[in-house]
Amino acid sequence: MVIKPWHLDMDLTREVIKTIPIWVKVMVNFKYWGIRALEKILKPVGKLIRVDENTARRDKLQYARVMIEVEVDQAFPDCNGEDRVFSKIDRIMANEDWMDEYEQARAIFLPEGVSDHCPAVIRMGNGQAHGQKPFKYFRMWSQAPDYKERVKRAWHWKGQGTEMYSLTRRLKQVKKELKDLNKNGFSSIQAAATKAYQELTDVQQALYANPRDARLAIVEKEAFNHYKQKQEIYMQFLKQKAKCHWLKEGDSNTKLFYRSIKQRRLQNNVYAIRDMTGELKDSPEDICEAFQQYYAQLLGTSMQDREQVQRIQQRLPTADRLNRWGAQMQATCGLCGTDQESSDHLFFRCSFSREMLEELKSWLNSRNTQQNIKGLCKWINRRSKQAKVERAAWNLVLSAATYLIWQNRNAVQHGKNKQGREHVVAQVKYQVCQRLQLINVTKLSSREQNWIDCLNRS
Q1: Which of 12, 82, 141, 206 gets the highest tally of CB atoms within 10 A of its CB?
Q2: How many Å separate Cα 340 from the centre of its chain?
Q3: Angle CA(265)–CA(267)–CA(272) in degrees, nearest 5?
Q4: Which long-range contacts (CB under 8 A, 24 or more apart) does 432-441 make?
């Protein structure tokens, strides 16, 4: 039916309708609800005419409702055969109160079988606990009066070490200071904003009753500025949590902010997953096991072709190997000047490296009696998990000592002066201490921390 306004000269012939306007629901994220974004999304279907009022104001987050103009005779995809189109028409409806009560609830749609609809199973959630969240900087912290002073004091950390180590320590000090600032000044920003608003309304009520009171006028102005500051901090927090940089500030956006934050929180959790066999897992233990099985198959549990340390050292161009290849080199060790140079001799059988190893053992207060690389590696791997700090220190000592011994050997082969054993040992101690200081102190026991302090002092 076509309805037109009547007039004397109107044309009563039947018109051919080529296009019609229809309302459609677009299931896209609300950040794509702009006019240009919707035009690009709907261009393959029809021409965008308008959006409804709720979509324009972004009052609802479930879907965008728009009016498009489509052609009456346009081709639609075939729903049978190879061009079959699957359309999800089954829905489970819930109001906002129910969703707030059961945040982890989810719907699982089963195969339809012989029916036209898919049966749905509602899981109420398992109340899984969240792990430790990574550190995140919030712009609201910059509103604190002592913000710059705290950052400046933490950044001016004084200590010895490489530039990278110094940068890492400074960043950790700033992180610690900002956490303390958040704990003491921003732990309850929503309650602070609500309290400031209540104080403002109380003062305004008193001022309405006595409008000539100058003191109340000053208090009302101070309360207004205080509330404005607290509300600005709260809105900055919500904006960053919701990542809605394109929205304007104001109380009308609070509901949208809360919904967006809740939506992001739900998307950042894994409530159910199918394992390698296709079976659905929904408990936290089964989900972790499914992830571990997948990546164990993808990456493997161990490197079967990993070469041992002694095999790698057999590839070093020592004097015995170079002479076998036809090079004319001095066969004796350049560090001790007695035996023939080889990998087995150079690393901890040479008098230079053997005395160096004994001194490092004394420094670590170790009682192991191993005198070669192979024995040291086996001894380190046998260390218990309770001695993880000592094991890490021994790995660092072994890596640094091997590198510096080979570096010192190359210096002698190229006609440079050999570094003294005391100097090389001091370099090993320095590098090990710098690396050990990067360990998170909160994860160390008091005994391990005291052990590291003793190494730094010795």
Answers
A1: 141
A2: 53
A3: 115
A4: 432/393, 432/396, 432/397, 432/400, 434/161, 434/162, 434/165, 435/396, 436/389, 436/392, 436/393, 436/396, 437/161, 437/165, 437/169, 438/165, 438/168, 439/389, 439/392
